[in-house]
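Posted in: Protein Modeling Q&A

I'm a second-year student putting together a small comparison for a lab meeting, and my supervisor asked me to include a predicted structure for YIPF7 protein. I've never done this before, so apologies if this is the wrong subforum. The sequence is pasted below exactly as I got it from our records. If anyone can share the structure token output, I'd also love a short note on what stands out.
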Amino acid sequence: MSNFEQFHLDFYQSNYTIEDQEEGCNSYGSDKNLCESRKSQTEKQPAGGAFVPSDMLPSPQSYTGQILQPAYSPDTTQLGYVDGFDEEPPLLEELGINFEHIWQKTLTVLNPMKPADGSIMNETDLTGPMVFCLALGATLLMAGKVHFGYVYGMSAMGCLAMHALLNLMSVSGVSHGCVASVLGYCLLPMVILSSSTVVFSLQGIPGTVLALFIIGWCSLSASKIFTSALAMEGQQLLIAYPCALLYGLFALLTVF
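Accepted answer (user: helix_wrangler)
Welcome! Here is the predicted structure, written out as tokens:
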């Protein structure tokens, strides 16, 4: 046991010092800068010779921008990411739902003599048409007529036929969404006609006159909007005729 303790002490004891290292650097003609850097590192070591990891050392916060020492700049990525939430548009705007435009289109349909704004009417807004189609089917259901399939079927076929016709008549062309939006918004007077069937029957001369008036109202509003949106001045009557045929089918479905 005594031999082992003596070997342990002899193994770890050493007479090598920092001065010997400096003398070795001077004797062998080593680089002076290398020796000075080693000396500065030994002076910066904490007392007691404990090893401190590099990630636990305090990092400098003010760099001068010299070589191998990049200038300190705060991390602005997280700040910009937080500010990005404030700059995002509202959810309804991302979904394409604009209540102001919906209200303007509804007023334009209710007043056929009001001039239509082409920039607003040329949008592919399907919120109003879906609501009016559901309202038409609901009012017919209240009158004892389950015609949801007929409403959606005639709407789809009418949109396809009007899209083909308007592309042949206009120079700029029109999209399917714009045609469906205009025809759907102009279905609002037909909802008024179907609501009247809940109160009284339309199978008579007064009902026929009211149905003809509603057909003219819907076709006049649709032709006016198509004329302003597609810049088809002087062709309103040509557009109103196929629109009247389409809304005549809805009127027949409502009356009978």
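A couple of things worth pointing out for your meeting: Residues 25-30, 46-50 have pLDDT under 50 and may be disordered. Residues 123-255 form one domain.
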